[in-house]
Each structure stands twice: as structure tokens, then as C-alpha cells.
Amino acid sequence: MIPFVRRPLPADLSATLAAKTAALRLSNAPYDDARSAWKTAGTTRRSLKTYLCAMCARPAFCMYCHESRGTDVDHYEPIKQSPLRTFDWDNHLLACAYCNQQAKREAFPLDPAGTPLLLDPAGDDSADHMTLASTGVFIELTPRGAETIAVLGLNRRPELIQARLVSWRGVIRVFEQAARSGDALTTDDLEDLRFLPVVDAFHHFAHDVAAGRLGLKGVRPVLTSYAKKNLPVISGAFPACRL
């Protein structure tokens, strides 16, 4: 998951969300009423989806896996867990049908202190909690990373692992060609990498450059050195990341 900057909504849409939340606060059955209100709020859902699509790292694609087209407005904290956050803009994410309806569903694991274990794409950088192996599989670095991989099934979908593998190889090829030329990278050189099947491969590559992990993944020293020299340009592709 690539962190993004959540933009403010227009005043009229914010007012609509606030009014719907106020109505739920008066409910004697907030979960049932929240479910019903969300199901019938088609216009509001479509508006939210429009704004979420514009904030994705890969435009209009799932904020969890980045591989599939975003189809659903997902509640990071599920309605069952917190019905009063049903219309909370800070609780809305764009997800594909698989991540939302088959993998995550109503799962929302917490640690003993009540802190969410599932990473939130709006504020968490997955590269702080997991790393992408050159095989396309995610390896956890923290308990939150492990839980997120499990909840979203990030290593259970062969087609997703294959897409990340192909994307990783694509990133390596681009940098190998650039390193051979000896020219400094430009933002235009990196633009196409944002539209790989899984842009997260480029995201993890950038973190590997910053952390000095490329050599551990079999990347040749000359490419590692070239990427490190161009880290400022690479960092510009992920403005919400700490690189």
C-alpha cells in the first residue's frame, strides 16, 4: 500500500456526510440503520468514489492491492465495528471487489491495546511493515505487516504475485537501461512506472534504494549505485512516503 494525501471534500458533500452521521447518532439500532443508510446512499457513494479515484497511487485502482480496478468504497473500520463512521470521509478507501468483499470483508484485527493491526493506506506506508521479495511475495517486517498480508490475502492470489513479479522485473529493466546510458533520471523517465500492473513494486523498489536493501535482492551493484544517486528524483514519485 502506498500512502496518499486525503483531500478535503466539497462543502456540500461534507455537509451531506455530517447530516447522515447525525441521524445515525439518534438511532436505537445504529448498525442496522447504518447498513440501510449506506445501501440506499447511491448518489453519495458515487460522489465519494469519484474523489477517491483521483487520489489513488495508480489512478482508479484498489488502494490495498493496486492490481485490480477500484470498484467499491470500502470502510477501513467496518460498519459492524463502528457504525457511526459509516459516513466518515476519513474512513473511506477505494477497494477492488476481491479485497473488499472476499478478503477483508468485516475483518478489523486489533492488538491488546486496541490499536488497529490492519494498515491504513491513508496514513500507513506498507514498506515500513513489509518488503517485496524479488519473487513477487510480500515478507512481513512487523506484526501489522503480517496481519495485513493475511487479512487482504496479498500472498494468496497467484495472479497478484505474478503481477508483482512482472512489475518488479519491469522496474529493474527501466533502471538498468538508465544506468547504461549514464544519464540522470528525470520525472518523465519514471512516469510510466506509475502505470505498471502493480505500482507497489516501484514503491517497494524506492524504499529498498533508501534502505540499502537492493543488494540483498540480487540487484547488481552498478544499478544499486545508480539508483541511490537518483534517489531524490525517485522520492518525488511518492510524495507521501518518508524516503
* Structural class by SSE content: mainly alpha
Main beta sheet strand tally, sense and closure: 2 strands, antiparallel
SSE topology string: HHHEEHEEHHHHHH
The helicity comes to: 40-55%
Query: What is the distance, rounded to the nearest whole angstrom, between the alpha carbons of the first and last residues?
Result: 15 Å
Domain HNH: 62-104
Pfam families: HNH
InterPro entries: HNH (IPR002711), HNH_nuc (IPR003615)
GO molecular function: endonuclease activity; nucleic acid binding; zinc ion binding
Report on this structure.
This is HNH domain-containing protein. GO terms for molecular function: endonuclease activity; nucleic acid binding; zinc ion binding. Residues 62-104 form the HNH domain. The chain is mainly alpha-helical. It folds into 2 domains: 11-124, no CATH class; 158-235, no CATH class. Helices cover 46% and strands 6% of the residues. It has 10 helices and 4 strands, in the order αααββαββαααααα. The chain has helices at 11-25, 30-40, 42-53, 97-104, 143-152, 158-181, 187-191, 200-211, 221-229, 231-235, and strands at residues 72-75, 92-95, 130-132, 138-140. It has a two-stranded antiparallel sheet with strand order 1-2. The chain has a two-stranded antiparallel ribbon with strand order 3-4. Strand 3 (130-132) and strand 4 (138-140) form a beta hairpin. Helix 6 crosses helix 8 (200-211). The model has no long low-confidence stretch (mean pLDDT 92).
Summary, kept brief:
The chain has 243 residues and is mostly helical. It has helices at residues 11-25, 30-40, 42-53, 97-104, 143-152, 158-181, 187-191, 200-211, 221-229, 231-235, and strands at 72-75, 92-95, 130-132, 138-140. Strand 3 (130-132) and strand 4 (138-140) form a beta hairpin.
